[in-house]
Fold this protein.
Amino acid sequence: MAHFTLNVNGASHQVDVEPDTPILWVLRDHLNLVGTKYGCGIAQCGACTIHLNGMATRACQLQVSMVGNSEITTIEGLSENGEHPVQQAWLEEDVPQCGYCQTGQIMSAVSLLKNNPHPSDEQIEMGMSGNLCRCGTYTRIKKAIKRASNN
Amino acid sequence: MSTFKTKNSRREFIRNVSLASGGMILSFNWLASCSSSERELKALPKNWFELNGYLKIGDNGLATVMSPNPEIGQNVKTSMPMLVAEELDIDWNNVLVEQAPLNVGLFGNWQIAGGSRSIGNSWVPLRQAGATARKMLLMAAASAWSVPVNELTTSDGIITHKLSGKSDHYGVFAEQASHLEVPEEVELKELADYKIIGHSKKNVEGKNIVTGKPLFGLDIYKEGMLTAMIVHPPAFGKVLKSFDASSVINMPGIKDVFTINTFNDEEARGWSDVTAFNEQVVIVGESTWQVIKAKKALKVEWKNMSKTIIKQAGWGGNATDVSIPSGLENTIDHNKNLIDYSSLPLQTARKNGNPEKAFKEAAKVLERTYTAPFRAHNTMEPMNFFADVTEERVILSGPVQTPEAAEGSVATRLKMPREKIEVHLSRMGGGFGRRLYGSFVVESALISQHMKAPIKLVYTREDDMTYGTYRPAYSLKYRAAIDKDNNLTAIHVIGGGIPESPLHENRFPAGALDNYLAEKWVIPSNITIGAYRAPRSNFNASAEQSFLDELAETLGKDPLEFRLELLKRAQENPVGERNDYDAKRYAGVLELVKKNAKWGAQDKKNLKRGVAAYYCHQSYVANVVDVRMDGNKPVIDQVFAAVDCGIVVNPDAAINLAEGGTVDGIGTAMYGELSFVDGVPQQDNFDKYRQIRHHEAPNKIYVDFVKSDIAPTGMGEPPYPPVQAALANAIYSASGKRLYHQPFIHELNS
């Protein structure tokens, strides 16, 4: 076990965990931030997507010892109460079915739009292809990203 | 208005609900998020008054509606309360929704997410619950104002007496109403008067989902809770030989390593008690990552399983001895058997006319065999459950489609009366049938009992994929007899599977043919299977509707018109008594998709199209799929879906389900499979098991509904099967290649 000081959602957090613990489990088990989901543990589904210094990152592959002073943003830190334009677009399009993958989808979409504010259909499809949705809400996700892009 | 008697069992039921709901169970909020959804509402009331088990009225006029069924993504947490709110006649913006816990005494015996039956089964009782409460509020107002109850009207939660000009909201009368006798009969609205049903309402949980609130089973964290994982045999056909606890017990955070036997051999297993690996090693620790590391480090040995006999009940049936064969199975053998089953005995399931004669006299016989592999459900949220077992009581909480069955299994296994078991339902991160089989609930209870502590059992993705209740491997052989005048004279279908046959012998085109024969076969297996989104239909539609397409071509007919021609026969002069579909409604969705897709019109973009239709779970769906080929890869430009599910309760949510079913159907047909080598599943995570992704989904999906005043039926399953065949048929028109074996990706690349 080792002490780490993490910068999560703009606040400093102390944790005492093994150095190889993925940030996914630090967030969920130790910081009570459960919006970041476990789906596969091997960076194949995108359910655990967070932002590391603003870049979409798979939390299941990021060991706590590698983070240092980097800024971690989780879905809980994206906005106070769901006001972020991407979250709003998700609500307007009523995207979710089961909803489990959607926080990861939103974090990926925010990152995509940051790098490319007006993506084409193809750019959305390729940019989001690392995020699985078993309910098949892909067409709505695309609509929501376009809506957010236009706002 | 139509009048419904509340007397008989329904009245007792509603009364019981009122009495029982003051107790601990309803006042118990398990997850913060299971309480009222966080929509923009006016201030919460100071007091709530319960009118029946489904709803409470606040002193300020807000209503809380309980949603009884498990939420799996089918959106029942919104659509079921809509039924109550419609008849309560309240402004939807003044409705809060809570997830009810398991209580079949209160909510009836279909607190299940399965069979696409939540809305159909609750159509009458939920509206009655709302109408009963409304009537009691009216009676209270009549008494308060000293006016006849029949002079009162309601609208959006306001009661008005026009003659005196008096008017006030429900909250004013709620306390008085809560003391009244349940009325003998209530009136239900006419379809034309609906203000909520048939009008799209957004998911009540939407904001909680997009902000990452703790909604799911995996999100449960309780004081003193430990994390548990299982280590199960690596292959079907293997069992535990030995394990070395000392290899991990001293690792950081590890609390205990032990084995459990999920079911006792002397007790019959219920229908949902499906497990391939009854004995497993359990590792319990303080945090998830610590247990994952120990799981990888555990030294354990396995041995081959002998032939085993278990006592297992079917759906509501008596237990019978079921023989589980020994051996380590291989997909290569399965595939051979799916095509070459000729040594197996065939069982006749249905026969009309004289099919043997028709085939003997046929000028031409079209014969095609279709197959599909085992499939894992792969819900995005892996299996998990929370259990807190003491000698006095059991608290269970998590995602399960069949809470009542799971409670019964825990009661049997722990020898604990049901009354001492509470089951709380979390939102499910997908189900698709996997969570019908709650052996993981029993596992969690046994682990908590052993640890004398609250625990959360968590399956890793690998556990989830390699320890499943899979969709069986299926085969359908279709044969059609065509006479010298090019008339279709008979169809013969042989449906088989490992270890279950997919055959629906009474489904279309049965009923449309004078001569028809349906036969089936099965090969036993030790690979565990279960219901998978639209069981059996999920393959039947693909095979049957692909065959009808090729048959239409052979007969020189338009594939859509050919189906309508058969359905006309089935409607006007049906063959046989037991046809399970309504030919008129079946034709209705084909007519609608024909119109919407402009079937037959010349296409400018060089798109090629395919059509298919199917009936299952009481609903009808037809699809037209437009594709173009990019080399061997189909690019799906658009999909039209025409649906008849009776009255559409929540249109936009129903469209969402049809879109999702379409995408899932395409993914199933194209990519997904679970294969085995020496009993070992060859896909254990999403790097090897291919699920459809964003760039493989259709560019556009157009969903439309047949206008109907028939009581609503399900939307979870019906949109999933037919698109698989519509895709295969479209690929044929685009590439000239007929596809017979799922996943199609192999045939397309060969």
Summary: Chain A has a mean pLDDT of 97.
